User: Fold these one by one.
Assistant:
Number 1:
Amino acid sequence: MKRTPLIAGNWKMNGSSIFVEEVVSTFSSFNDQHVDVVIFPPFVYVETMKKLLSNSLVKVGAQNISTFSEGAYTGEISGSMLKECQCDYVVVGHSERRVLFHESDQECLQKVIMAQTHGIIPILCVGESLKEREHEQAFSVIEQQLMAVISDSRVNSQQLMIAYEPVWAIGTGKTATPAMAQDMHHFIRSLLSTHLGQDTAQNTRILYGGSVKSDNASMLLAQKDIDGALVGGASLVIESFTDIIRAASSVKRV
Ligand code: PGA
């Protein structure tokens, strides 16, 4: 089993044309084969970044995708539009979308299917709130969010990535300890194994997200079942982001 670590930078609603230029010039000839890198800028920068990074191994993704194919859905962006921009990945079910925009597990499932229909790899985010963790519901919440998607036979489990992002760790500076994160990643992989088979479970990359920084990345990425990171805040600071990528490239799993 060899799962290449993947570092994803989720800019959320941050960035500018100037920042796009800075990032593109940093990564224009990126060719490290030991780590996969994907940047998720806001929609309006996806196509430009994709073109400007055509000589780089860095991939570009979108932060959302519509559940609808086309039509009168003001403000939505369809899978076929993303495909036209050569978008490689899409984040589905980020907790900010679940909490602030009330996205349900059912919508996450529709988005995963829509992405895969267009050949775009979805990264399904799952994560428990602080209250749920305190009430010892973390594992059951993750199971529910995951099962809502993987139990549907229309989902292609070979083209799916998972990101475990405890909501209480996102943007708060609080990170799950490496042991805590590893426990949940192991649990997720065992669910994948039970429901999709051992091979799929071993091949699926499970990323950790929530206040990943250059000083905690190595410890997290060294865990057996942590295959990369979904990085928010630190992806907006080029030096921090490149440090995290370097850590992933040289990591030795425990
Ligand atoms: P953070 O965000 O790294 O700023 O905590 C992670 C995420 O929301 O994906």
Number 2:
Amino acid sequence: MIGRLNHVAIAVPDLMEAAAQYEQMLGASVGEPQDEPDHGVTVIFIELPNTKIELLHPLGENSPIEAFLEKNPSGGIHHVCYEVQDIIKARDHLSSEGARILGSGEPKIGAHGKPVLFLHPKDFTGTLIELEQV
Ligand code: CO
């Protein structure tokens, strides 16, 4: 069911410092910061030849990554995103297998303008999984 790894998201305490490190030390192709108010984050995408890295920083009140950064003050891997062909089919299949879908259970439009859902990390070996319809 899942396809390509779309991105790995890393929560960072200082977005510009992390972006500069990827650009200058690692020599990666780093994009501009994008505010995602619906998701409570500012993101910077880093294009790699085979996938993307998404640097995440809290935006506004009650950002979903605020608590994560409190527990991991120097930052850390926050989630992985897998591509699916049909997000509703994927969701219904996963629910029927007992996996918990976070939030309302309805897809939201993600940072790439495509529908996304998140799966409960306790159901997936401690890893927060994002599904993105491509
Ligand atoms: Co993501």
